[in-house]
Q: What sequence folds into this?
């Protein structure tokens, strides 16, 4: 199933992804420098030149007067091949399509809540609109900044606790995509033994576990399910440590699991690498990880991915602001909206007709209301 699209210092600049030598205008350089000086922590990874003129003026809408879109990454940063990269895809597409400027910023190592507040406020102060926090960890920062900058539209992904007239809460039914992953895993396993690896033991990731387990059991309640969380707190590296993911995967494979599903951000790279090395199935998350270049060596063993169209949500929010009609309030995306799903990019998956049929039936049953997916294990 494919989704329907709708420390301090710089890391380097780029006009297109992977090109680190983009030339900045003098204005952009000054802006980037000010952002870094004022932010205290966090890295500016992109500024200007993609789909816009050398003077960094936003493009084609008379209603839009901002500098462009501001994006603040979650733990793991850009390059995680998953959650943050999904947000980047929407950011980059919006800049290109609407011919606007933009800046995306990395989190600093061991940063405080105050650092996040400074990063979000600096983006708003310098004229970026919308300003998007990638991940629930930005909720306090978005709440504080939204009150100070009422004319700026803020977006926060994976959190619906910030209630303000200028805030868009971009949340997903992750459990639905995870249910499809569970069905796929249950149909693909030859050992009747599968595994779930969550990055951090928090309610958001519990939704992934709950959906996955329910999906597995809907096929065969006798299938054994390994479950493991890498850390109790985000700051302990659960979303940013491929080695932790690899070790957890190794343990589950040793226990007999032959299909592993992760919801662990950057740590999930380690899960996929270990699964590929051991020649067992892995199921990715958020982005279509079969298509990620960094994981190309292991893609034959990526059965599919539970998709969450974070990029589409970022794109839609930006489009609404550019057009002068900002989307605000809770925006919840699900299977029916096409913003949650299960990737079918691997030809080995599409060749497994019984697996594909089971996943498609499960998808239809959820959309039709015949199946309600649990959000807690």
A:
């Amino acid at each position: 199933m494919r989704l329907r699209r709708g420390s301090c210092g710089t890391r380097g600049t780029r006009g297109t992804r992977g090109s680190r030598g983009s030339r900045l205008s003098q204005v952009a350089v000054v802006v980037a420098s000010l952002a870094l000086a004022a932010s205290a922590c966090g890295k500016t990874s992109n500024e200007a030149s993609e789909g816009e003129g050398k003077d960094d003026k936003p493009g084609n809408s008379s209603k839009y007067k901002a500098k462009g879109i501001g994006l603040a990454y979650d733990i793991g940063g850009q390059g995680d091949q998953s959650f943050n990269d999904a947000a980047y895809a929407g950011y980059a597409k919006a800049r290109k399509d609407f011919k606007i400027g933009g800046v995306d910023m990395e989190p600093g190592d061991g940063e405080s809540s105050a650092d996040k507040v400074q990063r979000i406020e600096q983006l708003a102060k310098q004229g970026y609109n919308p300003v998007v926090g990638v991940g629930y960890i930005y909720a306090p920062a978005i709440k504080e900044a939204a009150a100070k900058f009422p004319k700026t539209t803020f977006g926060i992904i994976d959190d619906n606790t910030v209630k303000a007239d200028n805030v868009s809460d971009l949340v997903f039914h992750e459990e639905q995509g995870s249910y499809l992953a569970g069905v796929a895993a249950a149909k693909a396993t030859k050992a009747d033994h599968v595994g779930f690896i969550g990055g951090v033991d928090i309610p958001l990731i519990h939704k992934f576990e709950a959906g996955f387990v329910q999906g597995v059991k809907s096929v065969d309640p006798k299938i054994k399910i390994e479950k493991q969380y890498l850390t109790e707190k985000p700051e302990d590296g659960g979303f940013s440590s491929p080695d932790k993911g690899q070790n957890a995967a190794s343990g589950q494979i040793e226990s007999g699991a032959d299909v592993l599903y992760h919801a662990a951000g950057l740590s999930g790279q380690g899960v996929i690498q270990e699964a590929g090395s051991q020649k067992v199935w892995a199921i990715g998350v958020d982005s279509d990880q079969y298509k990620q270049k960094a994981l190309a060596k292991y893609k034959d063993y990526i059965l599919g991915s539970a998709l969450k169209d974070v990029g589409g949500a970022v794109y839609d929010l930006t489009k609404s602001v550019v057009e002068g009609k900002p989307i605000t309030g809770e925006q919840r995306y699900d299977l029916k909206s096409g913003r949650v799903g299960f990737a079918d990019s691997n030809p080995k998956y599409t060749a497994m007709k019984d697996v594909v049929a089971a996943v498609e039936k499960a998808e239809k049953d959820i959309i039709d209301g015949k199946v309600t997916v649990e959000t807690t294990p």
